[in-house]
Design a protein that fits this description.
271 residues, mainly alpha, Serine Threonine Protein Phosphatase 5, Tetratricopeptide repeat, two-stranded antiparallel ribbon
């Protein structure tokens, strides 16, 4: 049962959704995503597993994971009330267990729900609480995600100065983490907002930074092609896309500071 439960946790965390026509409350499933019937079956199984845990006095650590995953499943189903209810239980249990990771995820995901309900000031408060925990944990990838989320809210309220500052904070972390995807997105966002503010020189500066990064990414791909053709030079391997930095229904499974950028260097062994 434990193996099946862990597999289910992973599956629910990967459920795919997208926003429709820029309507903050309108979400739909992508074609490759699971149907609502499948999701409902998973919710039913999670609830059954939760009851089994409680009856057999399983660890609270396992129970708090179930509540977080239930929150994510209900989020994907569009049942924000039930999602919030489960995230709040996850948060309370995380506080009792002094589990910072569970607290971080719960605050962040509640923030997402509040944003979708257009309760932007409350969403910012939750993001700020999650950010404080990330700093305590030295979870720089989590900090980067939250800086982006907070910048998005300030951009929505047309407070471009604050939005730019949070994107700059994200940009600095992206440099430290060698996160090419984050670098590109931050530069693009900052440049566009400076353009909106009619600060054309600053916009040009960040657009140029964006172009430099895109050229660097292209060079990485060219180096990889050379390496595959038999070059003995140091090359790069594309490790596949990272999780998008945009906010999502489930932040669960994000493992502290272990995440890597889209490209990672490797040293070719001499034959």
């Amino acid at each position: 049962m434990v193996a099946n439960f862990k597999k289910l946790i992973a599956e629910v965390s990967k459920m795919v959704y997208e926003k429709v026509d820029n309507d903050a409350k309108a979400y739909r499933f992508l074609p490759e995503a699971e149907t609502k019937d499948v999701l409902k079956k998973k919710v039913k199984y999670l609830n059954k597993h939760l009851r089994d845990c409680q009856q057999h006095e399983k660890t609270e650590k396992e129970q708090v994971m179930i509540y977080g995953t239930l929150g994510t499943a209900f989020f994907k189903l569009g049942n924000f009330e039930k999602a919030r209810e489960n995230y709040e239980i996850q948060l309370n249990m995380g506080e009792e267990l002094k589990d910072l990771e569970q607290q971080r995820m719960a605050h962040g995901n509640i923030g997402v729900l509040l944003k979708l309900q257009w309760k932007l000031s409350e969403a910012l408060e939750r993001y700020d609480l999650s950010l404080d925990i990330c700093k305590k944990m030295n979870n720089r990838w989590g900090m980067s995600r939250l800086y982006n989320n907070m910048a998005n809210i300030y951009e929505m309220t047309m407070d471009f100065e604050k939005a730019i500052q949070y994107q700059k904070d994200r940009l600095e972390l992206a440099k430290q983490l060698e996160d090419q995807d984050g670098l590109v997105k931050s530069c693009a966002c900052i440049a566009a907002m400076y353009h909106t503010l009619h600060d054309h020189q600053s916009a040009i500066d960040y657009y140029e930074m964006l172009m430099d990064q895109l050229r660097e990414n292209l060079k990485i791909l060219e180096d990889l092609a050379d390496d595959e053709s038999g070059s003995e030079d140091e090359g790069y391997v594309n490790l596949g896309g990272d999780d998008d930095d945009e906010e999502g229904g489930g932040e669960g499974g994000e493992g502290g500071d272990k995440k890597k950028g889209r490209f990672s260097k490797f040293k070719r062994k001499k034959k």
